[in-house]
Amino acid sequence: MTKFEEEVLSIPAGDSYQFIYRYGVHAFPVYNHNKDGQKTRKRSYRSSRFVTFRETGGLMTKLYTLQDTVILNPRKPLELRKIDPKYRARISNYINDRATNWRFSYDEEYQFFLLEFAYSVTKKLPRNLQGHTYLTFDYFGLKEEKLPKPIEGSDRGSNKSQQSKQGGGFGDPEINLEVEQAAIAYVKKWYVDRGWKVLSLENENRGYDLQCSLGRKEENVEVKGIKGKQRSFIITKNEVEQAKSNPDFVICIVTSAFSKRPKLYRLPGSKFIEKFNLEPLSYKASPNTQRDKANRFLIDYLKYKLIRLTKSGRS
After folding, report:
1. For a Cys-Cys bond, which of 31, 156, 173, 269 suits 249, CB 3.0-4.6 Å?
2. What is d(CA 300, CA 77) in angstroms, rounded to the nearest whole number?
3. pLDDT on residue 152
4. Could you tell me if 131 and 249 lie in one domain?
5. d(CA 295, CA 303)
6. Is 248 a residue whose pLDDT tops 90?
């Protein structure tokens, strides 16, 4: 394989692919480790045009380009202060999500890849392939002179009319994250400029992002950022429950969040429930164990009755 053909670096991600796709971030220890957990040599990759990640089973679905790299210990939050502010919230959210729902195996420095989505693909490597490998465009069915255009949403400068029609939470996850960060910064400034004290709680899963206080008055503020002007957005079950039950809940909707003049709509929870339609976009499915128990009881009862009838018929 020539240097020119080493176009795509493929890295095994296992179950951690969910965090890569969600935040556009991949982190790995700076050093390799032996079976006893001791450091051996530094981990390194050859320079490649794109990087992809293998899910459990070897499936690859996305090609990324590398925006930047950062080295820090994810178990030492204070190190985030040295990170470029434009990446700080993104890396912080990735660290908190991965530490809560998966793991960081070592208390040491990790290298963070800051990724930008490029192309959608569908290709699978053998399940037993270990470690990283290098692949050509041909492997993905791509040709240098006929590379597909980025899909909608991967380029901030393209498809503006479509994105302006979409509400918050729809479209490209990386852009959604940046819109949310811009909206939160705008709302924080709005409160601080009016004398409020603001505490950030975005990573605590309380059903709101900010705790704002002015004297004895308190507002639990959920922020929804929208790139365009249409006030439609994704809202979680926890946030809706806060709107219904928490008298201090306020929702702040920021439209045109990337523009020079964002527009802020502030609504208490009761007004939000009154003025907005809530449409379910997905459901959680799980077995109906109570119904299964009732069915088993009915079957056992009918068997019992049948046996009794059979015995009485014989006698």
Report:
1. 269
2. 58
3. 35
4. no
5. 12
6. yes
Whole-number percent of the chain with pLDDT over 90: 37
What is the amino acid identity at position 159? N
- The residue among 173 and 124 whose pLDDT is bigger is 124
Domain count, the chain: 2
Closest CA to 65 of 8, 110, 149: 8
User: Where in the sequence is the domain holding 208, given as residue range(s)?
Assistant: 160-275
- Quick: pLDDT tens for 3-22: 434 589 999 998 889 999 99
Task: Tell me if 184 sits within 8 A of 246, measured CB to CB.
Answer: no
Contacts from 65-68 at CB under 8 Å and sequence distance 24+? Answer: 65/115, 65/116, 65/118, 66/113, 66/114, 66/115, 66/116, 67/114, 67/115, 67/116, 68/114
CB 29 within 8 A of CB 43: yes
Residue 256 falls inside a structural domain: yes
Whether residue 259 sits in one domain with residue 165: yes
Do residue 100 and residue 196 come from a single domain? no
Shared domain for 118 and 34, answered yes or no, is yes
